[in-house]
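notes to self, project folder thing:

trying the whole complex as one job this time. last attempt i did each chain seperately and stitching them together was a nightmare. three parts in total, labels are on each line so i dont mix them up again. if this works i'll redo the older ones the same way
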Amino acid sequence: MRLIRLSGPALGAVLSLSCFAGCDNSKIEVYRVEKEHDSQTAQITEASGGSSGRGTVTWQAPADWVEQPSSGLRRGTFKIHGKDGGEAELSITAFPGDVGGLLANINRWRGQIQLPPLAQPDLAQVVTPLSASGRNISFVDIVSTDSIKGGKKSRILGAILPLGDETWFFKLSGPDELVAARKDEFKKFLETIKTEVTPVLASSAENSGSNTNAPTPPVLATTAAQFEYKAPPGWIAQPLSPMRLASFKVTGTNGAEADVSVVSLSGMAGGDLANINRWREQLKLPPLSEDDIASISSHVNMNGHDFLVTDLVSAERLPPLNHKMRIVAAASHQGEQTWFVKMTGDVDLVGAQKNHFLDFLRSLSLAGATRSDESSAQ
Amino acid sequence: MQVPPVRTSRLLNNMMVRSLKACGRALSSLRLTVVLLGLSMVLIFFGTLDQVHLGIHAAQAKYFRSLFVLWQPVGAAWRIPIFPGGYLIGTLLFLNLVAAHGTRFKPSPKKIGIFTIHAGVVVLLLGELLTGLFAKESMMRMDIGSAQTYSEAPRETELAIIDTSSKDDDLVVAIPESLLAHANVIQHPALPFMLKIVKFMANAALAMRSQAPDVPPSLATTGIGPNVVATEIPRTVKQDERDLTTVFVQINAIQGPLGTWLVSNALGAPQSFDYDGHTYELRLRQKRYYKPFTIKLLDFRHDIYPGTDIPKNFSSRIRLIDSRQKEDRDVLIYMNSPLRYSGYTFYQAGFDNNDKTSILQVVNNPTFILPYIACGLVGAGLLTQFSMHLVGFLRRRRP
Amino acid sequence: MPWFVAAFCLYFLIAFLFEGEPKPGYALRDFGRFPVLLNGRIKPLDTVARTSLLILCGKQSLRVDDGKSLSAIEWLTELMTRPEIADDRKVFKITNPDTLGALGLQGEENKNYSFSQLVPRAQDIERQAELASNVEEQLRTPFQRDVVKLYERATLYFRLKNSLEVADTNDFQAEVEAYAKTVALEFPLMKRARNSEPLDAPSEAAQRFSFLAQSAYFFPIPPAGPNGKPEQWKKMGDSLLTATKETGIPRPALAYAAMATGYHKEDAAAFNSAVSEYRTWLQEHIGKIPRTARLEAFFNTFAPFYKSMTLYVLVFILACGSWLVWPTVLGRYAFYLLVFGFAIHTIGLLFRIYLEGRPPVTNLYSSAVFIGWGAVLLGILLERFYHNGIGSATASVLGFLTLLIAHHLSLDGDTMEMMRAVLDTNGWLATHVVCITLGYASTYLAGFLALIYIVRSVFTSSLDNETATSLSRMVYGIVCFATLFSFVGTILGGIWADQSWGRFWGWDPKENGALLIVLWNAIILHARWGGLVGQRGLMAMAVFGNIVTSWSWFGVNMLGIGLHSYGFMDKAFPWLIAFMLTQVFMMALAALPAKKPLPGK
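result (full assembly):
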């Protein structure tokens, strides 16, 4: 009996409690609240978002800035056409680290329009601090003293934005008047820059498998052959490194070797003079001026493409084999891309292979192809 | 002639007493304990398996927070109970325990371990029951820099009709989802018009009509509705997805219907209309629980281990502003370190939007202390009981 | 303890110290001890080598054609500096027949393939992996899982290849030194401001280093100074690109470049001198870290858990033998070896605790190791009291099986990974997780004791009354222990959940699994107290405890909650089912009549 007396109320208590459970859900509530300032956008997904990866930068360009396909280490390129046919170019690049610092980079730009470099104390006078998305941007406006191209002065508007462990460069360069006219536009453009940390989409939180460091570069895929060629006999294809679209090795007697590479870069890639001088430097030859270029290079037309072919021989013996070295290089501008085909190696071997080199040029069919995995370089 | 009534009633009395005694013996028997524990194991096992199909919350409601597990044959509207549910088994275990202690257990110092353990178990069961009945969980999603005075239910919506005419504040009439689902006509003195629920869909897929040309005309006559196609789909079972509750609601004033709107928590912006000099907004949103204080998110940090995307810690720096209690202080909320204030506990639950949005879980559980008490009781009881056993065992081994 | 047992133990313990260098003449062991940052943790290159090789082919050393085997660190160094040779080593273990068919690979006896064999099929692998990755993970077929895994493994291989130097480099040291000269003149990316470089297409060196920075798998360059933080470790490419005129190229980068070139040119002297120079630099400049890395490399070579596994097998043989012949002698030897194996097992656990800085159980791998440890400890105590070989036998079986499971769990990668934010509180890891794991260990121990009872009673006539009673007491005692720990552990878990997200009990599959163990142990006790089961019933119930614990430990992980799948595709699933069926079979055996023990026993 004691049991019944005990269990009865106990059961009753439990059952009555459970009645409370569903009872309060169906009431309409009326209340007053403060006005809301933002409208809530419906968020469909809950919790556990992505995770941080490398920073990205977004911007908004004015309507008449024509965006160009980006390549290699460029994050963005725009061309602005002036009324009188002049053209200015905005290049956006980013590199790890601080790339030498503010002074060094400003002096680099000064050098590009043949201005003398500044010293550290003068820096503050030249740099205007701007701000975008809460971050500090260093802005400079430099005009050349002499005429650089086509009898006109050149102007560079540059902005340097440190972001995380990278530094971003925004450089608008072109004829003085055109660029000056666009200066306000450029500054407004800088203010539209937003910096975000893009998430590297994490796989489900429970996945304890392979780690993910930020961007994965191209793994195994060779590029889809969007340009064609025919390799001459004796040229052995090499595994591609990321910048080369094709790579060959030729071996001759006594350990002589020659290396052939095909590379494509966007835009003018610095111009013919700069590239020829780069190759000259690789052979430890002194640089030339624009006038002398014509004497050491020639234009040839191969398969509908115009190549500027240069043949250079080093003056001294160079490592590793202590032979004289020779470079035969061809550059061709195709639309927005510049193609370089370069054979470097032992002087005799390259000489012997020169005809093969020309045959190879003849076999090229360049259709403005880009590397299919370009985007991973971002 | 008198039939001896006493004998009949005494017979009945005896029978009653005997059957009650049998019941009592059964209720307090150890056999019942074992059976009940076995049943609970079966319940838990199948409930766990069914979570794959139903999702954690629906499975919880079906198996553990119910008196019976109901089974609905395919296509039928009726459901039959096929197995005792969590509440029933829990109640029976509770009664069994009480009965056993009431009848068979003679209090003695030897049994103190067992008593304490069982007391702890009772408190645990009670705690889980009360939590199921009374605890409320909600979420606060805040962008950095924003302040909020409400939290939202993760799986429940409400239709908010907001009178935005006044310059100072808004008057909100919030109609819970359960009413939208079951009621046909909704009327409330605070509203000068009547709502008729034309169609309620617990979860729907919405698409623009322009991309689905062959569907029948929309039930909605005004607002966004006519441009949208809503197709009903089953409720989601994934933990991180929300149902897109969609309702076609017709607003009827005295003069006649003002129109039929499609409202859904998938829509970003509210729809509004004017009536009788007032401007009203219609919003189907997650059910809001307004609080008498404000939380402002100052900063959210998300550290990861270098070179990986394994999260190291998350933390939200918030400012708590309560004008009643004159509180205005900064608090850092991070994993395993919540803010307890005014009966609510705020936990760092997640984040979104490239680390710009922090998600806090808000829990209101008045009976939260019970499991701690139970832990203490059970732990103490187990230790006592088994150390007594161990001592006895060792004493016997030592010759 | 007889001298020869002691001698055997000593030899077993220190034999590994006398192994020679992996590649004679090269200081590869010291190279393997250099610390690098990977997955948020600083670890020796030796660990990177071993875990990478485990991921690729399931072993810590590579068998090569002429019957010899390549140690992990030798393989890794070769991959990083002489990839043209490494690419022909058969490191990719591919066993799924559909994968082999889709890629047109066949003919290899032991299903190991080399990177060069995969390269021509690279586009196919990428395409298949991309298709498969569009399917949700739990819904993938075995082929899809395998091909995604293959793609991940190939990516790992490629990235390792390009971690110290770009794969096609012939003389990285010269490349770095040439680059250093340009750094000394101006800032890194431009040679000379005025004339030469195309202005927005930086030098080839910078391009190569940028590629190197993107591809590299680990971060080898430490920050200078003893107070460097893990976030400051750099990849090789990054440290070169960020060198300035003032900082110059960091010493570690130069050192690694010298080592890479030395190994590439097979110049042992150059390699060794670069290694020893860097070693000295590390000791002078970054404090304690190299010591911990060296300790971890030593731990890898010591491989305590594999040693314990071997010992446990011996113990089992001796213990079973002691039931047939020479009971006291064999029993004693079994016990000594068991204790010795346990000591090594403990040393291994202590190493892990020190290296990780965490309580012993942090992930599935360490839970397996700890379950073994707990079971062996309890078994030792039982044997100490009962002296009948049963404690030794059960302990050794459980120790061996759990370490075997741990070995298979280690094939996914680093077992000392960093813990996610919500899980990384040492307090709760030390209490809740340890209690639950001890609960698992003791339930398994009770189950295996019961298995011995059943086997001996049904198949042999060696189960006399005395043994039966002592077994019964053992099982009962261990079940009490299991109830205590699993109950307390489960409640502690609830409190941890309440502290973390405000919910004591969420009816989560893992929580439910733990609760099932508590309930089952409680049922055993109540049934025994109520006289509802006799001795054999107790044994059958204890064996069922094995099933419940396996479900809780592994089964719930395979559920794929929220998706319409039961995770049948999980590789371990058939093993789990097989194990459970064997236990059901044993339970059925318990119903058979016992073989009467011979009279006079």
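what i see at first glance: Chain A touches chain B through 50 residues (CB under 8 Å).
need to look closer tmrw
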